[in-house]
Amino acid sequence: MKFSPALIIAITVFALSILAVGRILIGLIVSNLHQINSLDRQQISQKPADHRFSVIIPAFNEEKFIRRGVESVLKQTYPNFEVIAVDDGSSDKTGMILDRLARQHPQLRVIHQHNQGKSVAINHALKKFATGDLIMVLDADSYLTPTALTNMALRFDDPRLLGVSANVRITRPHNLLEYVQKVEYLLGYRLKGSEELLGIEYIIGGVGSTFRKSAMLEVGGYDTDSITEDIDFTMKMIAHFGNSNRQFGYADDVIAYTPPVSRFSQLLKQRYRWKQGRFKALFKHRRVIFNRDAKYTFSLAFWKLPKVFFEEFLMLIEPLLLLWIIGIIHHFADFSTIFAILGLYYLFAMATFIPEELKFWERIRLMMVAPLAYLILYVINIVDWISLMRCLFNMKRIANNEDKTAKWQHVDR
Protein backbone atom coordinates (compact mmCIF):
# COMPACT_ATOMS: atom_id res chain seq x y z
CA MET A 1 0.00 0.00 0.00
CA LYS A 2 1.43 3.35 -1.09
CA PHE A 3 1.04 6.47 0.97
CA SER A 4 0.71 9.81 -0.77
CA PRO A 5 2.78 12.75 0.51
CA ALA A 6 -0.42 14.48 1.64
CA LEU A 7 -1.44 11.44 3.70
CA ILE A 8 2.01 11.15 5.27
CA ILE A 9 1.90 14.81 6.25
CA ALA A 10 -1.63 14.39 7.63
CA ILE A 11 -0.59 11.39 9.75
CA THR A 12 2.48 13.29 10.96
CA VAL A 13 0.45 16.36 11.95
CA PHE A 14 -2.10 14.15 13.71
CA ALA A 15 0.61 12.31 15.65
CA LEU A 16 2.29 15.56 16.68
CA SER A 17 -1.08 16.96 17.76
CA ILE A 18 -1.69 13.91 19.95
CA LEU A 19 1.76 14.36 21.51
CA ALA A 20 1.07 18.05 22.16
CA VAL A 21 -2.29 17.32 23.78
CA GLY A 22 -0.80 14.53 25.86
CA ARG A 23 2.09 16.71 27.01
CA ILE A 24 -0.24 19.49 28.16
CA LEU A 25 -2.68 17.13 29.91
CA ILE A 26 0.05 15.18 31.70
CA GLY A 27 1.85 18.41 32.57
CA LEU A 28 -1.29 19.94 34.10
CA ILE A 29 -2.13 16.83 36.11
CA VAL A 30 1.40 16.43 37.49
CA SER A 31 1.71 20.20 38.10
CA ASN A 32 -1.47 20.09 40.20
CA LEU A 33 0.01 17.26 42.26
CA HIS A 34 3.15 19.34 42.71
CA GLN A 35 1.08 22.31 43.89
CA ILE A 36 -0.80 20.11 46.38
CA ASN A 37 2.54 18.90 47.76
CA SER A 38 3.59 22.52 48.27
CA LEU A 39 0.40 23.28 50.22
CA ASP A 40 0.84 20.15 52.35
CA ARG A 41 4.44 21.14 53.09
CA GLN A 42 3.33 24.54 54.41
CA GLN A 43 0.56 23.04 56.56
CA ILE A 44 2.65 20.34 58.25
CA SER A 45 5.57 22.66 59.02
CA GLN A 46 5.57 23.47 62.74
CA LYS A 47 8.70 25.60 62.89
CA PRO A 48 10.83 27.75 60.59
CA ALA A 49 13.34 25.79 58.53
CA ASP A 50 16.87 25.92 59.95
CA HIS A 51 18.72 27.47 57.04
CA ARG A 52 20.63 30.67 56.41
CA PHE A 53 20.29 32.39 53.06
CA SER A 54 22.87 34.43 51.26
CA VAL A 55 20.96 36.33 48.58
CA ILE A 56 23.42 37.41 45.89
CA ILE A 57 22.35 40.27 43.60
CA PRO A 58 24.82 40.90 40.75
CA ALA A 59 24.24 44.30 39.16
CA PHE A 60 25.53 46.33 36.24
CA ASN A 61 23.90 49.69 35.43
CA GLU A 62 20.65 48.86 37.22
CA GLU A 63 19.84 52.22 38.82
CA LYS A 64 16.24 51.93 37.61
CA PHE A 65 15.44 48.71 39.50
CA ILE A 66 18.17 47.97 42.06
CA ARG A 67 16.47 49.61 45.06
CA ARG A 68 13.25 47.68 44.52
CA GLY A 69 15.08 44.38 44.25
CA VAL A 70 17.22 44.84 47.36
CA GLU A 71 14.34 46.14 49.47
CA SER A 72 12.18 43.16 48.48
CA VAL A 73 14.76 40.90 50.10
CA LEU A 74 15.15 43.09 53.18
CA LYS A 75 11.36 42.85 53.74
CA GLN A 76 11.30 39.05 53.84
CA THR A 77 9.36 37.32 56.61
CA TYR A 78 12.16 34.77 56.98
CA PRO A 79 14.55 35.88 59.75
CA ASN A 80 17.92 34.37 58.85
CA PHE A 81 19.46 35.89 55.73
CA GLU A 82 22.03 38.29 54.36
CA VAL A 83 22.06 40.28 51.13
CA ILE A 84 25.23 40.58 49.05
CA ALA A 85 24.95 43.07 46.19
CA VAL A 86 27.81 43.08 43.69
CA ASP A 87 28.25 46.28 41.70
CA ASP A 88 30.10 45.02 38.64
CA GLY A 89 31.68 48.29 37.54
CA SER A 90 28.45 50.19 36.89
CA SER A 91 28.78 53.56 35.18
CA ASP A 92 25.43 54.88 36.44
CA LYS A 93 24.15 55.45 40.00
CA THR A 94 23.83 51.76 40.90
CA GLY A 95 26.81 51.78 43.26
CA MET A 96 25.71 55.00 44.94
CA ILE A 97 22.19 53.64 45.56
CA LEU A 98 23.58 50.42 47.01
CA ASP A 99 25.98 52.25 49.35
CA ARG A 100 23.13 54.40 50.61
CA LEU A 101 20.98 51.32 51.30
CA ALA A 102 23.88 49.56 53.05
CA ARG A 103 24.21 52.44 55.54
CA GLN A 104 20.56 51.93 56.48
CA HIS A 105 20.47 48.12 56.55
CA PRO A 106 23.18 46.05 58.30
CA GLN A 107 21.98 42.88 56.51
CA LEU A 108 23.17 44.35 53.20
CA ARG A 109 26.79 44.09 52.11
CA VAL A 110 27.92 45.86 48.95
CA ILE A 111 30.88 44.73 46.87
CA HIS A 112 32.36 46.99 44.21
CA GLN A 113 34.53 45.47 41.49
CA HIS A 114 35.75 46.20 37.98
CA ASN A 115 33.39 45.13 35.23
CA GLN A 116 34.05 41.41 34.67
CA GLY A 117 30.64 39.90 33.92
CA LYS A 118 27.71 38.40 35.77
CA SER A 119 29.23 34.96 36.41
CA VAL A 120 32.40 36.47 37.88
CA ALA A 121 30.30 38.75 40.11
CA ILE A 122 28.29 35.82 41.48
CA ASN A 123 31.41 33.70 42.04
CA HIS A 124 33.13 36.54 43.88
CA ALA A 125 30.25 36.85 46.35
CA LEU A 126 29.84 33.07 46.65
CA LYS A 127 33.47 32.21 47.37
CA LYS A 128 34.59 35.26 49.35
CA PHE A 129 31.63 36.63 51.29
CA ALA A 130 28.59 34.31 51.48
CA THR A 131 27.98 32.80 54.93
CA GLY A 132 24.66 31.03 54.27
CA ASP A 133 24.21 27.34 53.54
CA LEU A 134 21.71 28.29 50.83
CA ILE A 135 22.55 30.67 48.00
CA MET A 136 19.78 32.50 46.17
CA VAL A 137 20.70 34.46 43.05
CA LEU A 138 18.36 37.33 42.24
CA ASP A 139 18.60 39.41 39.08
CA ALA A 140 18.96 43.10 39.91
CA ASP A 141 15.88 44.08 37.90
CA SER A 142 13.66 41.54 39.68
CA TYR A 143 12.09 41.32 43.13
CA LEU A 144 10.65 38.79 45.59
CA THR A 145 7.30 38.54 47.34
CA PRO A 146 7.63 38.72 51.17
CA THR A 147 7.29 34.96 51.86
CA ALA A 148 9.71 33.81 49.14
CA LEU A 149 12.59 32.84 51.46
CA THR A 150 10.26 31.19 53.99
CA ASN A 151 8.73 28.96 51.34
CA MET A 152 12.07 28.25 49.71
CA ALA A 153 13.63 27.23 53.03
CA LEU A 154 10.94 24.58 53.52
CA ARG A 155 11.91 22.97 50.22
CA PHE A 156 15.48 22.42 51.37
CA ASP A 157 14.46 20.33 54.36
CA ASP A 158 14.78 17.52 51.81
CA PRO A 159 18.53 16.69 51.92
CA ARG A 160 18.45 15.26 48.38
CA LEU A 161 17.53 18.62 46.88
CA LEU A 162 20.42 20.62 45.40
CA GLY A 163 18.71 23.38 43.41
CA VAL A 164 15.26 24.94 43.10
CA SER A 165 13.87 27.49 40.66
CA ALA A 166 11.32 30.13 41.62
CA ASN A 167 7.93 30.86 40.08
CA VAL A 168 8.77 33.89 37.92
CA ARG A 169 6.02 36.25 36.81
CA ILE A 170 5.94 39.37 34.70
CA THR A 171 5.26 42.70 36.39
CA ARG A 172 2.30 44.79 35.29
CA PRO A 173 2.33 45.05 31.45
CA HIS A 174 1.89 48.38 29.65
CA ASN A 175 1.59 47.32 26.01
CA LEU A 176 0.52 44.31 23.95
CA LEU A 177 4.00 42.78 23.68
CA GLU A 178 4.47 42.94 27.44
CA TYR A 179 1.04 41.34 27.94
CA VAL A 180 2.08 38.51 25.62
CA GLN A 181 5.06 37.82 27.90
CA LYS A 182 2.84 37.88 30.99
CA VAL A 183 0.60 35.16 29.54
CA GLU A 184 3.63 33.20 28.32
CA TYR A 185 5.25 33.14 31.77
CA LEU A 186 2.03 32.09 33.52
CA LEU A 187 1.37 29.23 31.11
CA GLY A 188 5.01 28.15 30.88
CA TYR A 189 5.62 28.05 34.61
CA ARG A 190 2.34 26.20 35.15
CA LEU A 191 3.81 23.20 33.36
CA LYS A 192 7.19 23.60 35.07
CA GLY A 193 5.77 22.04 38.24
CA SER A 194 5.56 18.70 36.46
CA GLU A 195 9.26 18.66 35.62
CA GLU A 196 10.44 18.04 39.17
CA LEU A 197 8.14 15.06 39.76
CA LEU A 198 9.00 13.59 36.35
CA GLY A 199 12.74 14.06 36.94
CA ILE A 200 13.30 16.26 33.87
CA GLU A 201 14.09 19.68 35.38
CA TYR A 202 17.29 20.99 33.83
CA ILE A 203 16.97 24.79 33.94
CA ILE A 204 17.06 26.53 37.31
CA GLY A 205 16.45 30.08 36.06
CA GLY A 206 18.44 33.06 37.28
CA VAL A 207 15.56 34.92 38.96
CA GLY A 208 15.38 33.56 42.52
CA SER A 209 17.32 30.38 41.74
CA THR A 210 18.56 28.72 44.94
CA PHE A 211 21.29 26.13 45.47
CA ARG A 212 23.13 24.51 48.36
CA LYS A 213 26.37 26.40 48.84
CA SER A 214 28.37 23.21 49.46
CA ALA A 215 27.28 21.79 46.10
CA MET A 216 28.05 25.04 44.30
CA LEU A 217 31.56 25.11 45.72
CA GLU A 218 32.11 21.43 44.90
CA VAL A 219 31.62 22.11 41.18
CA GLY A 220 33.70 25.31 41.32
CA GLY A 221 30.89 27.84 40.98
CA TYR A 222 29.64 29.32 37.71
CA ASP A 223 31.63 28.91 34.50
CA THR A 224 32.60 32.22 32.93
CA ASP A 225 32.27 31.23 29.28
CA SER A 226 28.48 31.37 28.91
CA ILE A 227 25.97 34.12 28.13
CA THR A 228 23.26 32.19 29.98
CA GLU A 229 25.02 31.33 33.19
CA ASP A 230 21.90 29.86 34.84
CA ILE A 231 21.26 27.19 32.16
CA ASP A 232 24.95 26.32 31.97
CA PHE A 233 25.28 26.07 35.75
CA THR A 234 22.25 23.81 36.15
CA MET A 235 23.58 21.45 33.48
CA LYS A 236 26.99 21.56 35.14
CA MET A 237 25.43 20.55 38.47
CA ILE A 238 23.39 17.75 36.88
CA ALA A 239 26.41 16.44 34.96
CA HIS A 240 28.42 16.29 38.21
CA PHE A 241 25.86 15.08 40.77
CA GLY A 242 23.24 13.45 38.57
CA ASN A 243 19.52 13.98 39.12
CA SER A 244 18.42 10.55 40.31
CA ASN A 245 19.61 10.38 43.93
CA ARG A 246 20.09 14.16 44.00
CA GLN A 247 17.24 16.36 42.83
CA PHE A 248 16.51 19.68 41.15
CA GLY A 249 13.10 21.22 41.60
CA TYR A 250 10.64 24.05 41.20
CA ALA A 251 8.87 26.00 43.95
CA ASP A 252 5.52 27.29 42.72
CA ASP A 253 4.98 29.13 46.02
CA VAL A 254 8.27 31.07 45.75
CA ILE A 255 7.13 33.98 43.60
CA ALA A 256 9.45 36.49 41.98
CA TYR A 257 8.60 39.28 39.54
CA THR A 258 10.65 40.49 36.59
CA PRO A 259 9.93 43.31 34.13
CA PRO A 260 8.93 42.42 30.55
CA VAL A 261 10.76 43.48 27.41
CA SER A 262 8.93 46.42 25.87
CA ARG A 263 10.07 46.34 22.22
CA PHE A 264 10.05 43.56 19.62
CA SER A 265 13.71 44.11 18.65
CA GLN A 266 14.76 43.76 22.28
CA LEU A 267 12.66 40.62 22.71
CA LEU A 268 14.48 39.13 19.72
CA LYS A 269 17.80 40.02 21.33
CA GLN A 270 16.77 38.39 24.62
CA ARG A 271 15.37 35.18 23.13
CA TYR A 272 18.32 34.73 20.78
CA ARG A 273 20.62 34.90 23.80
CA TRP A 274 18.49 32.36 25.66
CA LYS A 275 18.35 29.91 22.75
CA GLN A 276 22.04 30.30 21.94
CA GLY A 277 22.93 29.76 25.60
CA ARG A 278 20.75 26.67 25.88
CA PHE A 279 22.27 25.10 22.76
CA LYS A 280 25.72 25.91 24.07
CA ALA A 281 25.01 24.33 27.47
CA LEU A 282 23.56 21.18 25.90
CA PHE A 283 26.56 20.73 23.60
CA LYS A 284 28.95 21.47 26.43
CA HIS A 285 27.35 18.87 28.72
CA ARG A 286 26.25 16.49 25.97
CA ARG A 287 27.55 13.46 27.83
CA VAL A 288 24.34 13.52 29.90
CA ILE A 289 22.22 12.89 26.78
CA PHE A 290 21.53 9.15 26.28
CA ASN A 291 23.75 8.43 29.28
CA ARG A 292 22.89 5.09 30.92
CA ASP A 293 24.55 5.95 34.21
CA ALA A 294 22.05 5.29 37.01
CA LYS A 295 22.70 8.70 38.53
CA TYR A 296 20.68 10.27 35.69
CA THR A 297 16.96 9.67 35.38
CA PHE A 298 15.92 7.87 32.21
CA SER A 299 13.30 10.57 31.62
CA LEU A 300 15.98 13.28 31.46
CA ALA A 301 18.73 11.46 29.54
CA PHE A 302 16.54 9.63 27.04
CA TRP A 303 13.46 11.84 26.80
CA LYS A 304 13.68 15.47 27.89
CA LEU A 305 17.12 16.45 26.61
CA PRO A 306 16.84 14.67 23.22
CA LYS A 307 13.33 16.11 22.89
CA VAL A 308 14.79 19.62 23.09
CA PHE A 309 16.47 19.08 19.73
CA PHE A 310 13.38 17.40 18.27
CA GLU A 311 11.22 20.35 19.33
CA GLU A 312 13.66 22.75 17.71
CA PHE A 313 13.40 20.75 14.48
CA LEU A 314 9.60 20.96 14.65
CA MET A 315 9.88 24.69 15.17
CA LEU A 316 12.11 24.91 12.12
CA ILE A 317 9.51 23.27 9.86
CA GLU A 318 6.51 24.83 11.63
CA PRO A 319 5.92 27.47 8.91
CA LEU A 320 5.59 24.67 6.33
CA LEU A 321 3.17 22.73 8.53
CA LEU A 322 1.16 25.88 9.16
CA LEU A 323 0.92 26.63 5.44
CA TRP A 324 -0.20 23.04 4.81
CA ILE A 325 -2.92 23.31 7.48
CA ILE A 326 -4.12 26.61 6.03
CA GLY A 327 -4.21 25.00 2.58
CA ILE A 328 -6.30 22.08 3.86
CA ILE A 329 -8.69 24.44 5.62
CA HIS A 330 -9.08 26.52 2.45
CA HIS A 331 -9.52 23.50 0.17
CA PHE A 332 -12.11 21.68 2.29
CA ALA A 333 -13.61 24.74 4.00
CA ASP A 334 -13.19 22.81 7.26
CA PHE A 335 -12.16 24.91 10.25
CA SER A 336 -12.30 22.08 12.78
CA THR A 337 -8.50 21.87 13.03
CA ILE A 338 -8.00 25.51 13.93
CA PHE A 339 -10.96 25.42 16.33
CA ALA A 340 -9.45 22.36 18.01
CA ILE A 341 -6.10 24.13 18.47
CA LEU A 342 -7.73 27.28 19.84
CA GLY A 343 -9.95 25.19 22.13
CA LEU A 344 -7.03 23.19 23.49
CA TYR A 345 -5.06 26.29 24.43
CA TYR A 346 -8.21 27.94 25.81
CA LEU A 347 -8.67 25.03 28.22
CA PHE A 348 -4.96 25.10 29.05
CA ALA A 349 -5.16 28.82 29.84
CA MET A 350 -8.28 28.42 31.98
CA ALA A 351 -6.70 25.54 33.89
CA THR A 352 -3.76 27.87 34.61
CA PHE A 353 -5.51 31.15 35.43
CA ILE A 354 -8.17 29.71 37.78
CA PRO A 355 -5.91 28.05 40.42
CA GLU A 356 -3.07 30.61 40.27
CA GLU A 357 -2.75 33.07 43.15
CA LEU A 358 -3.72 36.23 41.28
CA LYS A 359 -5.54 39.40 42.17
CA PHE A 360 -9.27 39.18 41.40
CA TRP A 361 -9.39 41.62 38.50
CA GLU A 362 -6.13 40.33 37.08
CA ARG A 363 -7.61 36.82 36.98
CA ILE A 364 -10.78 38.14 35.31
CA ARG A 365 -8.79 39.97 32.61
CA LEU A 366 -6.70 36.89 31.90
CA MET A 367 -9.76 34.64 31.69
CA MET A 368 -11.30 37.06 29.17
CA VAL A 369 -8.30 36.70 26.85
CA ALA A 370 -7.99 32.92 27.42
CA PRO A 371 -9.75 32.11 24.09
CA LEU A 372 -6.86 33.91 22.35
CA ALA A 373 -4.13 32.05 24.25
CA TYR A 374 -2.78 30.24 21.17
CA LEU A 375 -2.64 33.42 19.08
CA ILE A 376 -0.95 35.26 21.95
CA LEU A 377 1.69 32.56 22.32
CA TYR A 378 2.27 32.50 18.57
CA VAL A 379 3.97 35.89 18.88
CA ILE A 380 6.59 34.13 21.00
CA ASN A 381 6.76 31.31 18.44
CA ILE A 382 7.68 33.84 15.75
CA VAL A 383 10.43 35.29 17.95
CA ASP A 384 11.73 31.80 18.75
CA TRP A 385 11.75 30.81 15.07
CA ILE A 386 13.82 33.84 14.11
CA SER A 387 16.16 33.13 17.02
CA LEU A 388 16.49 29.51 15.91
CA MET A 389 17.46 30.56 12.38
CA ARG A 390 20.15 32.84 13.79
CA CYS A 391 21.44 29.98 15.94
CA LEU A 392 21.61 27.65 12.94
CA PHE A 393 23.74 30.15 11.06
CA ASN A 394 26.13 30.23 14.03
CA MET A 395 25.78 26.58 15.12
CA LYS A 396 29.41 25.66 14.45
CA ARG A 397 30.65 28.39 16.79
CA ILE A 398 28.01 27.46 19.39
CA ALA A 399 28.74 23.72 19.27
CA ASN A 400 32.50 24.29 19.51
CA ASN A 401 32.08 26.79 22.36
CA GLU A 402 34.10 29.38 20.43
CA ASP A 403 32.41 32.41 22.00
CA LYS A 404 33.70 32.38 25.56
CA THR A 405 32.17 35.38 27.28
CA ALA A 406 30.32 36.29 30.45
CA LYS A 407 29.64 39.89 29.46
CA TRP A 408 26.38 41.53 30.45
CA GLN A 409 23.81 41.65 27.65
CA HIS A 410 21.04 43.97 28.85
CA VAL A 411 17.77 44.52 27.04
CA ASP A 412 15.69 47.69 27.30
CA ARG A 413 12.89 47.40 29.83
TrEMBL record:
Q: Which Gene3D superfamilies match?
A: Spore Coat Polysaccharide Biosynthesis Protein SpsA, Chain A (3.90.550.10)
Span of domain Glycosyltransferase 2-like: 54-216
A Pfam family matched in the record: Glycos_transf_2
The transmembrane residues are 6-31, 308-329, 335-354, 366-388
Q: Which SUPFAM superfamilies match?
A: Nucleotide-diphospho-sugar transferases
Q: Note whether Transferase occurs among the keywords.
A: yes
Q: What name does the UniProt record give this protein?
A: Glycosyltransferase 2-like domain-containing protein
According to its UniProt entry, this protein's organism is Limosilactobacillus mucosae LM1
